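Minutes, structural biology subgroup

Action item carried over from last meeting: produce the structure token record for 2-amino-4-hydroxy-6-hydroxymethyldihydropteridine pyrophosphokinase (Aquabacterium soli). EB confirmed the sequence was re-checked against the source entry. Recorded below for completeness.
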Amino acid sequence: MSASLPSFRAYVGLGGNLGDVRATFQDALARLADTPGIAVETMSSLYRTRPVDATGPDFLNAVVALQVALGPRELLGVLQGIELAHHRERPYRNAPRTLDLDLLWFGGVVLDRPELTLPHPRMHERAFVLAPLAELMAQRPAAALAEGQNPVLPAAKDIEAYSKNQGIERLNGSNP
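Output recorded by EB:
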């Protein structure tokens, strides 16, 4: 990524419950890392999640932190292209999927457009987002405070309660 371009921290949620999800996540991360203007910082552990407002087998979920020198709509286009490369279909809302890449947060930008809402409108309701996001932010607390580009999360006890209620299980040693 060019040092002369401004960059923003973005958080992207990864999810899937069809096919070899771990391999799909590995490929998605490689594609992100190979995209000009995107640097992959770190990824959370994997979390197994019961479907929320969805059907099918359990999901694997994670969150990745990026530094991006793209705009939020351009990043969304990259994410949707990676989903399509993995045969993501949208036959109905919350259908089972090979790969779901949700732009959760983009450097504090607030948008409310038909194609993109930032921060993600349901981010604070979903333990499968909150637990891995909290994990990432705990890994970099000084940077999180200094940069001011990170979301404010519920208290740890609340995230734990959401996780228990929504059937979230952290998988040990689980980076893809």
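Discussion: The mean pLDDT is 86.
Next step: EB to file the record with the rest of the batch.
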